[in-house]
Amino acid sequence: MIDEELINNLKKIALQVRRDILEMTTQAGSGHPGGSLSAADIMVTLYFHKMRHNPKKPNWLDRDRFVLSKGHACPALYACLARSGYFSIKKLKTLRKLGSCLQGHPESHRCPGIEASTGPLGQGLSFANGIALAGKLDNKDYKVYVMLGDGECDEGNIWEAAMLAAHYKLDNLTAILDHNRLQIDGFNKDVMNIEPINEKFEAFGWNVIVIDGHNFEHVINALDDADKIKNKPTIIIANTIKSKGISFMENQAEWHGKALDKKQLKQALKELV
Amino acid sequence: MAEMKATRDGYGEALIELGKDKRIVVLDADLAESTRSIKFKEKYPERFFDVGIAEQNLVATAAGLAASGKIPFASSFAVFITGRAYGQVRLNAGISHLNIKLVGSHAGLLTGEDGASHQSLEDISLMRGIPKMIVIQPCDFIEAKKATIAISKYKGPVYLRLGRTKLPIITKKNYQFKIGKGVVLKDGKDITIIATGSLVHIALEAANELKKQKISARVINIHTIKPIDKNLIIKAAKETKAIVTAEDHNIRGGLGSAVSEILSENHPIKIKCIGINDQFGESGKPDELYKKYGLTKENIIKTAKQLIKR
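ok -> structure tokens follow
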């Protein structure tokens, strides 16, 4: 049984992170709110509950690592990092602006807490594998978390990496698939069907857990269950809703890469209380 | 007759030495035997990772290792590591400037019978276009070995271009390899031949022949194509009447372009670029291909004489 206080606290932070996502993308006039909102609850659970990390020591060798392979969802990552204390909350307003460390897609060398530069899809899982291999070589007990998009699974590099993680028995790696079912041109099933995605990963030698990605109890339990699996990597297939939390944005492909205008933002923020 | 060995063998041998450093890891994409990374695998199997025939995976996995403090050498054929994994190279070695050593063997027409699809003639151009990428092509076995050791000590992304076939060893054992420093192999005052990789020994042969014809040719080995030894090239431009460049690569984007950029901005003099003239190769024996595409002593001599006469 999971502590109710913990869940209430995570819910509160997730609301704040959602407000941050919308405010910073509107301020920037562009960005990717849809996939940020679908991934937010999982990322909040990682940064504010699951991961061993220290914002004051972003390069701590024993830290757990999080790689955002679907790099366009960086507003959610930036909000989690700022709210954790990696940098000031004020910085969120500089998203996508000239000279900001918060680039349109994440760049690891510009900003503390960002493990990998991502954006061009399909590469983050390989990158996370590299960190996991290094952890094994160095006998470190850190865990590597990597978040994938479902549209991203169209990329061949994902499957190259999926084979590698199983081949090298990377049980220190947990992937989370933000399965919101939408990509830029529409629903996955219409653009490029990826189903049955759980069976695909199973066939590739992974431990697969399917959850509701907006149910904190599910997310926490799945992350804990992944720790118990030895000799194979785990993927948590998190069924999510694109633009989760904003009634007029949910489940619409158009909010993949478009920011709200000021009027829409005002309306959206009313739903995040 | 000089001893013959391939540059890829120099790479393999250097890896064995480098393996003493626990930070060194080696990755390959099912070509370990061909790239000679197998030498490292035999000695340090726990730090060798085959990623399968998956070059994108090769480079991005190496990036994760580099971000974790390792010094990864990722090897494959030149055409694959620069071409099939270009996006992974650009993001991780380029934008993130991670400490990844990309090693492309079987570069150029020297690859021979495998044909155009496997003869990388654009890789220098691709890698040279990535900001802050170091691009190195050794001219023989010893230089390849020393270059491999030198790049392991440099912190940042490097592309090392190697060849399949044996080449005469012209480098002395006590030679000091310095990234970015061209090497004057032969002094001369009439013309300068600037060569890289497999064309260096051919350039030397051409210079010896020219000497018999009373033409004094300077020969410079440019092993580091980026950052190129600007001062040495400008000096040669000032002290000799013309420059010939020679490379086993497309002259568009390769050494010829790199030298032309320096000359045109600093000291324009006559230049002629010998290399593959904006076309693909084909199957054949390396020496047959070199003859057909003009990568020969005779062509360098002819070109040098034409330039001086003009």
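The longest helix of chain B spans residues 199-212.
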